[in-house]
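ENTRY TYPE: protein
CONTENTS: sequence, structure tokens:
***
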Amino acid sequence: MSATGVMVISDGVFKVDCGAVFGRIPKIMWENLVTTDRKNRLTMGLNCLLLECAGHKILVDTGVGPKDNLRDKEMYGLVPSRLMRSLKALGLGPRDIDAVVLSHLHFAHAGGATRMDRMGDMVPSFPKATYYVQRSAWEDAQSPSVRQADVFRTDDFAPIAERGQLELLDGDTELFPGLSLIVTDGHSKGHQIAVFSHGGERIVYLGDLVPTPHHLWPTVLSSFDYEPEKTMEQKRDILDDVEKKGWLMVFPHGNETRAGYLQRGKDNDMAYLRPVEF
């Protein structure tokens, strides 16, 4: 599915160890549901959301981006960034983006926010955009705990503040008419999801609250989660709204399935995902 005003675009894929993806869920419960490589890694999408809202072109998350980090390339099986090519295919360039919403500052979501210029300096990828980040997420990235430090790359976000393009948010925010940001900080401090009203429909970009369709199951929690119990509670509340109100979900790391609706059978049995091409 695609529609004027909203589209899922891709920065490509990366590979993550299944122990990190599924957390405490034992391998015997998921090994027949997914296909892994010889290193036990699952291929995951790097999906971003492009919106037209109130006269603005808005990008939600930026994928890994074009960084040349050899360690990350090896660990995560990174290939060249596709984000700019995805925008170009739509007739857009970096200067056409007016706002960038970062769900959080982990490298798989904020990496494409900056790039290296011809002089070898790190600069914002979108020179005319204002970047919106929760204050608590920004502060956490400046001095992360030992457990969280490995998911941040200072080059992904420091140039945004240095160039005066950063705006910090404090809690739930209606950023533009029809676009609301909701703090769901179980995964990481200041993590936020985006809810967009478009043509009578609501579309929710779930961030790492529900990174893939596999994480719709309440107890499937990534080992990266800062407060797993909090994630589980927040996920339950959001997915309750998703089902009852018929919201379209976008999964940032879905690969075969990037979007869908949560529905329940006629006999009110277990909820299931109805995938949608988007």
Residues 143 and 219 are 29 Å apart (CA to CA).
